[in-house]
Design brief:
Blueprint: E1 10-17, E2 20-27, E3 30-37, H1 40-50, E4 57-59, H2 65-78, H3 98-106, E5 112-115, H4 116-123, H5 127-135, E6 148-149, H6 165-177, E7 185-186, E8 194-197, H7 198-208
Parallel strand pairs: 1-4, 5-6
Antiparallel strand pairs: 1-2, 2-3, 5-8, 7-8
């Protein structure tokens, strides 16, 4: 038996909202993956890549209030809206600590970022594991992995990158979300997770270039 055999089947839904297409993979209303794309085909391709190889799946047929609501909320996130709370993850697809890491990361609001180390401490794991989970994030835009950076505010790890166009994309996403915040804050209901203004990340990147110098996850 391979490690992915025995996973529960998921149903795949695709909806257009806000000028983009969104894919939702769910098992009885519990999420297994999400995707966004400029076209339905792109959203399908990305969603398929977010599911484990061999995971059983079938296309959703007919109406689905769950898929309609999820697409609207994902579109609101892409437009800079507040975090997508209240969703349930499929435990077979997200055992601990992955479930805790993704739930905490999903709570990061626009205008703020958190370090890999802070997410690790709040979820009971290590920074390197948080980095691995963010690099393979299967729940974007529900989980805004671009808002997770190094402990010294360095851009690092977006889609697994340490330099190049992916980090420039991460930088531009953060730049577009700057809200003029000035102080570090603690997010309620996150076990003490502290977040800081994205301006701190932008300032470091502007001083040192896209990579922000030697990255530090902790």
């Amino acid at each position: 038996m391979t490690k992915n055999e025995g996973l529960p089947p998921v149903r795949l839904w695709f909806r257009e909202s806000g000028g983009a297409w969104y894919g939702i993979a769910e098992n009885g209303g519990r999420l297994a993956a999400a995707s966004s794309g400029r076209t339905k085909e792109e959203a399908k391709r990305i969603l398929a890549s977010c599911l484990p190889e061999g995971a059983p799946r079938a296309d959703g047929v007919g109406p689905s209030d769950f898929a309609d609501d999820a697409a609207r909320r994902l579109a609101a996130l892409e437009a800079g809206g507040e975090p997508y709370g209240g969703f349930e993850l499929s435990p077979e697809y997200y055992p601990e600590p992955a479930a805790s890491v993704y739930r905490l990361a999903s709570a990061l609001p626009p205008g703020y970022a958190a370090s890999y180390g802070a997410l690790a401490r709040a979820s009971g794991t290590i920074a390197r594991e948080v980095g691995r989970l963010m690099a393979g994030n299967p729940l974007y835009p529900m989980v805004p992995c671009h808002r997770v950076v190094g402990s010294d505010y360095a851009l690092v790890g977006y889609r697994g990158a340490t330099s190049g166009p992916d980090l420039r994309d991460k930088l531009e996403r953060l730049r577009s979300e700057a809200r003029g915040f000035r102080e570090e804050v603690e997010l309620p209901g996150t076990g003490g997770l502290r977040v800081f203004p994205v301006e701190w990340v932008l300032a470091k990147a502007d001083r040192e270039g896209d990579g922000g110098g030697q990255p530090e996850l902790w």
